[in-house]
Amino acid sequence: MEAKQAGAEAEPLARPEGQSQPDEVPVVAETAPLADKNDVTGEAPVDAACNGVEEADATVTTADKTPAETVDEAQGASAAAAVDEIEPAADAAPAEPVAAAPADEAQEEIAAATVDEAEPAADATPADPVVAAPVDEAQEQGAVEDAVDAAAATPAAESEAPPPATPFQRGEVVDGTVLSTSPTEVRIDLGDGHEGIVPGRELERMQREQIEQLQPGATLPVYIVNPHDHQGNIRLSVTHAQEEMDWRKAEACHKSQEVFDSLIAGYNKGGLIVRFGLVRGFVPQSQIGNERRSASGSTPQERWGGMVNQPIAVKVIEVDRSRNRLILSERAAAREQRESRKEKLVQELRVGEVREGRVVSLVDFGAFVDIGGAEGLVHLTEISWQHVNHPRDALKVGDEVRVEVISVDTQRKRIGLSIRRQAADPWDTVAIDYKVGQLVQGLVTKLTNFGAFARLVAAPEIEGLIHISELAEQRINHPRDVVNEGETLTLRVVKMDVAARRLGLSLKAVNSAEYLDQDWLS
């Protein structure tokens, strides 16, 4: 047998399945020299060591110990027996020193002594055999897993413990009272002993007017950002509260179709930007009022740059909070405002009243004039005392005019206006300056099937009719057979009705003998 180096490290002990490994692996310590293996007396120390292990194992193992305790204590005894120096028996003869047993053989012996049932030494008094309690591996493994799970669950449960209950919900808007202010925070009393804070970084983004309102004792709405933050505080926001209130107001206006008055805050290539409180609304170009939309310019700056900070009335036509989208309409608001103002004005107006107005639109039959919140119609015949073929011949959009109320229909909400009645009535001079039989100069302005209209050269506001029967002595089919538009003729006044404002003229009576005496006197 080859000699082995003393002090070689022992391999870990084999353990029954379901049992954990010991924290430290027993090693075989350096042993004293042994006698030659052929020497009978030299075997005594090894047998004594093995007997010591077996006796220790048999002594410790009892029926009331658990299998795990039995194995652990057996390992401890085996390790102690292997570590201690092995002394030769007292009655043994001196022997030649021999090499220590191989490390793997010692390990096998220790493992065998640990796992197998302990047997009494040959020279020891036989002991009653002790039977170890059966090991329920499943129960032991389950107990270990339960202990690990309990240990792991304890910190998680502590970290996930719910925060203290508060009567507030995230995103809720409540009223609070300012308790104190500082550069770093504002403390708000929420009632029932609850206090919240507005952080300093929000104060840095607030406008000066908003900060000045945060005086102790002031009541204001606040937004619950977090009902319980990492420091146990109720985190609040004044700005978010105002935005939330503005969104709610926009939704209410959308449902009620109420008109909202604001200022134009800016513009882009698609339309105007209008502030709805702290929420930014957008008025598309198609929803801008007629007057603003008619502004000229090749760029948005040229068209709408001068409108910034101008007042504007709008209606909410779309609200989409998820997309941060608020669409407004000036046209819809203008229609409703006109109808509302018109209804009120119709009840106040009286015939004969004189108002200042502005021409807002022209149509074939007249002009619409805004007289302060409501529009009235100036019929074509009421534009001027002179004959007007189309309103654009005498007016243009935007003209400031003085009008007289000539009719009010409260049922149909219609207002009749007149421009010409605010000018001197030319018929007042006709009654004085003109008489039947007088010769006048007239300009042919219009031809019809029944005659031709001619304007007096000396009084352009007066227009008379030359009946087709007064154009020639003979019968004619149409006035164009005798006269042409734009032609200036000498005519004779044959009829006057100042009350009805009618003037009859004649071409054929110019050389009539009936008026010779009158012509001679004149």
Would you kindly provide a brief summary of this structure?
This protein is α+β, with helices and mostly antiparallel strands. It has helices at 44-60, 67-83, 103-115, 137-159, 200-205, 208-212, 238-256, 290-293, 300-304, 330-348, 427-433, 516-521, and strands at 173-181, 185-191, 194-199, 219-226, 234-237, 259-268, 271-276, 279-284, 311-320, 325-329, 354-363, 366-370, 375-379, 400-409, 414-418, 439-448, 451-456, 463-467, 488-497, 502-506. 27% of the residues lie in helices and 27% in strands.
Structural descriptors:
five-stranded mixed β-barrel, disordered N terminus, alpha+beta, 522 residues, single chain, 20 strands, five-stranded antiparallel β-sheet
Strand composition percent:
25-35%
What is the C-alpha radius of gyration, as a whole number of Å?
A: 59 Å
Question: Strands across the major sheet, in which order?
Answer: 1-2-3-5-4
Gross morphology: rod-shaped
Tell me the structural class: alpha+beta
Report the uncertain regions. Answer: 1-72, 74-136, 146-161
Number of DSSP helical runs: 12
Describe the structure in your own words.
- By secondary structure, the protein is of the alpha+beta class.
- Helices cover 27% and strands 27% of the residues.
- It has 12 helices and 20 strands.
- It has a 5-stranded mixed beta barrel. Strands 8-7-6-9-10 form a 5-stranded antiparallel β-sheet.
- The longest helix is centred in the N-terminal third of the chain and has 23 residues, at 137-159.
- Residues 1-72, 74-136 and 146-161 have low confidence and may be disordered.
